[in-house]
Design brief:
heterodimer; A: mainly alpha; globular
């Protein structure tokens, strides 16, 4: 059920800033090492809360579940490596935390809409003056949005391909 | 320089905690501290940049209403405030020094775009990038 912008979500108390600060610590840890495995237990320990509490609180605080947030960081890092290095796509897959080239390629396509190879060709065709923008800001600005789960994105993509466009009833 | 920006304020969780961080860990010094009831105007400055003051302010009434103050505190704690950039002569040396004093680094020094940068947070959640000055 969508809620109007600016109103609080019914039944959800505002989050305690002390808790938010500790959740941010978990987010920072994923940012610093997105290639590492971040099971919920590990993240919950960083924030000092239970696993169940962590997953729920993180999503409420940052708008995406922790695992999906991690995916966006990995894809963004992969895009930077595609743009700025000569590493092979297989190497990039392993550098960014995927266990196989297949999973990387499929997830990358599902999220960005194109294959890693196509992305590399396109990014290299555009010359940019990026050196004057702090890298963290740049990476945040270039991060793919993932407001919906990858599985849902995949399903919607299939719908478009199949020409099915129900929903969006006014 | 006789004209320019003199003060930019940051929202912090607690002014005493922020003061200890910016003075003891980053090496700033107090410029102005004025109290009026619960309200406390507190600015610090970098010793090598006397024309600029960084304000350390807590959001709260009467400047903003209680609900807004709560939202601002949450935003700060989520790291959602605008970026802050500190320029240093030697990023790795500063990182060593600051880390020894307990600064929470979010990114260790990295060579990038012909310079070196690192990232840290203040206790409230404000994110800083620390960039080595280009020579």
């Amino acid at each position: 059920m969508p809620t109007a912008k600016g109103t609080s979500i019914p039944g959800r108390a505002p989050q305690d800033p002390e808790l938010l600060r500790r959740l941010l610590r978990a987010k920072d840890r994923m940012d610093a090492a997105s290639h590492e495995a971040w099971p919920v237990g590990r993240l919950a320990r960083v924030s000092g809360v239970s696993e169940a509490h962590f997953a729920r609180s993180f999503k409420q605080a940052f708008g995406v579940p922790p695992h999906r947030y991690l995916l966006t960081r990995r894809i963004e890092r992969a895009m930077a490596l595609l743009r700025e290095t000569d590493l092979s796509i297989t190497e990039i897959a392993f550098h960014t935390g995927w266990g196989s080239l297949g999973t990387f390629g499929r997830t990358f396509r599902d999220i960005t809409g194109e294959s890693p190879g196509t992305t590399r060709t396109r990014l290299r065709g555009t010359v940019q003056e990026l050196g004057r923008v702090p890298a963290c800001i740049l990476s945040a600005a270039q991060r793919p949005g993932l407001e919906i789960a990858v599985s849902e994105k995949r399903r919607r993509g299939a719908d478009v391909i199949n020409g099915s466009d129900e929903k969006e009833v006014p | 320089m006789s004209q320019g920006v003199e003060v930019v304020g940051l929202y912090v969780r607690d002014q005493d905690e922020a003061l200890a961080f910016y003075v003891d860990k980053l090496g700033f010094r107090v410029h102005t501290e004025v109290r009026n009831g619960d309200y406390r105007w507190l600015t610090v400055q970098h010793p090598e940049q006397p024309s600029f003051q960084l304000g350390l302010f807590t959001p709260g009434p009467p400047v903003v209403d209680a609900q807004t103050a709560q939202e601002l505190r949450a935003l700060v704690a989520k790291g959602a405030m605008p970026p802050l950039v500190l320029v240093v002569d030697d990023c790795r040396a500063a990182w060593d020094r600051m880390r020894a004093r307990g600064v929470e680094f979010t990114q260790d020094p990295v060579d990038r775009y012909g310079t070196v940068d690192a990232g840290f947070r203040d206790p409230s959640g404000n994110g800083w990038k620390m960039i080595q000055a280009r020579r």
